[in-house]
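Researcher: We're teaching a course module on how sequence relates to structure. For the next exercise, students receive a sequence and then see the predicted structure as tokens, so they can try to spot secondary structure elements on their own. Here is the exercise chain.
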Amino acid sequence: MNIFESVRVAMGALGANKLRTVLTMLGMIIGVCAVISLMSIGQGAQAQVTNQIRGMGTNLLFVRPGSTQTSGVRSAQGSAATLTVDDADAVAREIPTVVATAPEQNGGGQIIANGVNTNTRVVGTTPDYTDVRNFKVASGDFISRQDMEGKARVVVLGANVSKTLFGDDDPVGQSVRMSFNNRAATTFQIIGLMEAKGGTSLGNQDDQVFVPITTMQARLLAARNVRGAANVSVINIQVSDEKQMTDTVADVGELLRDRHKVVEDDFTIQSQEDFLATFSQITQTFTILLGSIAGISLVVGGIGIMNIMLVSVTERTREIGIRKAVGARRKDILSQFLVESVMVSVLGGAVGVALGWGVSRIIAGMPMPGSTGTAASQGLQTVVTPESVLLAFTVSAAVGIFFGIYPASRAARLHPIQALRYE
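Model: And here is the predicted structure for the students to work with:
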């Protein structure tokens, strides 16, 4: 009996018990649907994190202060006041692979306007920040060189801060009062409003405001290093080409060591790819976990197939005896029942793939628990990849083969005389 004849016979046998066939397939349908839909959530989360990190800018390096050591006790990374605006200027000036740099001095501040106050992140930075970090101004202007030189009391609001203080009104031209560390509030004029970027795994990019870094250091947060220079929290570096990242890291490290006159680094350099690799590893683990949990239902579905196939072998014992009596070989009986088992699992897998794709489309865009603002409006992202479909379909076929082997072997081992005498 060739494979086509086995398929024809299997279709007839399955069609003779339609309800039982559908109920048997149900386990595979639910299992494959669960695998597809849950893996789509994991892969969607991975794509979302990747897009968010890419949205921070392209080909970025982040230089942060190192740690301090007192009485043999080393503090956390970033606690040392070692980086300055001059360091950022030197990196942009002396390293040819660097397109631009944007130093930051940041901290938490309180902003008051229209009788409403809010605590937010205040970022002191330079005009190059928008290009380096891929930020765009929705209304008004960003910080200018004149603002930097004059230490102007101007501020650019993030989308969430503007909505909290002014609702849907355009805040450009209005004033806010800003204070740090319980100091007397200083009045700032709003010159711009940033486009909404949404939240990332590293924080909400809309819940911050921007001021000239010279104003930040002179009026709000006058932190200085041991050499008396105003220090910065981080230096953002944009590299001309992704292929130059490794060489640029080495060049920046050599330049800063020479400027700081140290042997051991008093700073740390991280690349955008470091963040991406870390979060990708987390989301991949999350996806595998979801797929493994859903895979349990495939095993349950396979057990159901084995159970029904054993019942089918018992019911068709006389049929098996007749086939053997007219010349059917053991491998013919084996292949017949194995094909039936595989067809049940494959058909169930195909329906499960379609249903899983539908479920992933339905849940796409649903708000994530605990999300607010723009991040919530983006909602849950799902991605159904050809790899996940192929994996689920292949596993369903493998389950059909694995759990169909025993019933098929049992049918093939039946003695024809005993099978014909079976009542």
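Model: If you want an answer key for the exercise: The CA atoms of residues 33 and 356 lie 4 Å apart. The longest helix spans residues 272-315.
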